[in-house]
Amino acid sequence: PSPLPSTEVLVNIYDVSQDRTVQRLNELMLHRHIPFEFGCIFHSGVEMFGQEWSFGFVACGTGVHKTPPRKHPHHHYRETIELGPTGLNYEEVLTLMTAMSAEYQGSGYNLCKD
User: Fold this and answer.
1) What is the pTM of this model?
2) Which long-range contacts (CB under 8 A, 24 or more apart) does 16-20 make?
3) pLDDT value at residue 27
4) In terms of DSSP bridges, do strands 64-67 and 51-55 run parallel, antiparallel, or are they unpaired?
5) Fewer CB in 10 Å around end: N or C, the chain?
6) Measured distance CA(13)–CA(43) in Å, rounded
7) Strand 51-55's sheet: what is its strand order?
8) Strand ranges (DSSP E) for the chain?
9) 3-state secondary structure of 40
């Protein structure tokens, strides 16, 4: 059974790392009075059914990881964007994430590209 009955899909945005300097740099680059956005450094996770999945670097094994929503241990939570409901049920989401875990290896992660 699902941890949460909600079919809402959320994207949780983080500042890359817990470093306050990165957080401050992102704040400056995203200032509301600047008419365009500079290159900021973010991480994101997709939350469905009360669980969050994201992709990141590891030397060996899958780069797809599950963490508690909005609590990634290596990044500073910034905001959540609501995307709407998924057409998948909980079991289908788990099947999809299992397939993605096999396909997306952590050694293939590139901070500047992914």
Assistant:
1) 0.80
2) 16/41, 16/42, 16/43, 16/75, 16/111, 17/74, 17/75, 17/76, 18/74, 18/75, 18/76
3) 76
4) antiparallel
5) N
6) 6
7) 64-67, 51-55, 42-48, 8-15, 76-85
8) 8-15, 42-48, 51-55, 64-67, 76-85
9) coil
